[in-house]
């Protein structure tokens, strides 16, 4: 494989990876830590540890990416978060 082909292959892989979307969860002054943790476990298939870490990041940093993937996979998960009263969006 020539150098030119290798570079083109690397670019193609990077373009495919960039099609990933993210659910970003935002901090609010309404929901409890337990509610956010339980919702992340249910909606995003987080382990309790993952959910707790994301909740802490949201609390102190203001936001956190809680799930990445294809838009069609993330949409129902984000809807669950929103229906539970959390502030989230897909970017």
From TrEMBL:
A UniProt-annotated Pfam family: ClpS
BP term (GO), one: proteolysis
One MF annotation (Gene Ontology) recorded for this entry: peptidase activity
Domain Adaptor protein ClpS core positions: 17-83
UniProtKB keywords: Hydrolase, Protease
Protein name: ATP-dependent Clp protease adaptor protein ClpS
Source species: Aequorivita viscosa
């Amino acid at each position: 494989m020539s150098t030119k082909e290798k570079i083109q292959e690397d670019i193609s892989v990077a373009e495919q990876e960039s099609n990933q979307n993210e659910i970003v969860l935002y901090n609010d002054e309404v929901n409890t830590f337990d509610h956010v943790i339980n919702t992340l476990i249910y909606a995003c298939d987080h382990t309790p540890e993952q959910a707790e870490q994301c909740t802490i990041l949201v609390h102190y940093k203001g936001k956190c990416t809680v799930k990445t993937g294809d838009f069609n996979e993330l949409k129902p998960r984000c809807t669950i978060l929103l229906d539970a009263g959390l502030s989230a969006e897909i970017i």
